Amino acid sequence: MKRTAVAVSTVVLLLPLSACGGDAEAGGGSTVTITVGYQSKTINTVTAGTLLRSLGYFEKQLNSLGDGRTYKVAWQDYATGAPITAQMTAGKIDIGSMGDFPLLINAARGKQLGRPTHLVAVTGYNLRGGLNTIVTAPDSGLTSLKDLKGKKVSTSVGSAADGTLVRALQRAGIDPGKGVEKLNQQPAVGASALAAGSADALSQFVAWPGLLARQGKAKALYDGAQLNLPTFHGVTAREDFAKERPTVLEAFLKAQAQATDYLNDHPVTAAEKVARATGLPAEVVYLYNGAHGIATFDPALKPPLVSALKRDVTILKSAQLTGDVDVDSFVDDQYLKKALGATYAERLAATPPAPASEVWPEGSRQTRTFKSSGELLSYVSAHRDAIRAAYVPDATTGTPWFADKAVWVADGEKLLPFVAPATARAYVDGHGGASVVTYAEALERAS
User: Fold this and answer.
1) How does pLDDT run across 170-223, given as a tens digit for each residue?
2) I want to staple 225 with a disulfide (CB 3.0 to 4.6 A). Which of 128, 186, 293, 437 is the partner?
3) Which domains does the chain have, with CATH numbers?
């Protein structure tokens, strides 16, 4: 029996229920369609979605199963995690990827509707919460979270970015339910609202804040890493599918690990692949997924991430989006452990790379790293017409940001970048003689 795995584009609402994980007789053998829900532009899920699909690793793993079946993979692309959960609980998606808050809603809905799901792997994570950012219009006079009181803020309710907004407002002494007018909008709609002036700020997940900043359509107001709480994206699978086809789920997880290794070994090429597939600028993809990007990619279900998920339940309960969620029963690493074998323990113990300043030279397939942001500025100053992008880590949180969009502080001979104005001001207030300078001034001082 010749076995093949074929990637199939589908019209998501017309996909028959029986096609998902189901068998159909095909020339004396059987055909199995595996349906994967992903978010192409939520680029911290690429190892379970966009990049994985472009590399064809899942199909190759399915071909190697040797069970006499022909496999087809139906990839379904969504803007957020909510519709993936709706399709999973309807039995129409077998495997999905989404952010931490949507994962909890996925768990709650699955249990409620009698089709339980499980978190089986992680895609990209940031231990401080830097995957989410609150931005304002480029000409906005808002400079801190306190300025949001009484303002209109766009977010996707129930998303990880919404969780960041709620926590950030609470820390700023603002009631998230009454202190701001929250607009529940899809990311693209929120971006348009910000541009039109019908929203004063936008709280969103990757890659929207970085994209809007790169395009000159927004500036950062709040770096999610200021919360110092982990945020991540992960892979969820239907329990009935996992039990019926454990080898298929393990094949997916093996393929995801391969895609993770590919991204980590070839970060520039991976960014360009994702850019071609999504239409996002490669420079924006690299901000998040690069060698020293905001996200760290590792499928292991690390204890700090599971602990963060448990803390997230409170936020969703207060918003009446879920009741109690049994996180311990939702998390299931048995399939990943079997898929990765001895390497699982190594991945579990791995830590994120240290923050670094990085330049992507024009026309190059490699980036250059620097020990300090000052050294990067010196290089950029001497090669102004040959820089595709320059990235610097926030001096407080370590969150990478575009050098030309950062808030710069001069402190003696040191030149320090910050994602948001409030953190820059906090540094200046605590360091006599330090002052905020423009990017142009920072380049001049470094030259």
Assistant:
1) 999 999 999 999 999 999 999 999 999 999 999 999 999 999 999 999 999 999
2) 128
3) 5-125+231-349 (3.40.190.10), 132-227 (3.40.190.10), 357-446 (no CATH)
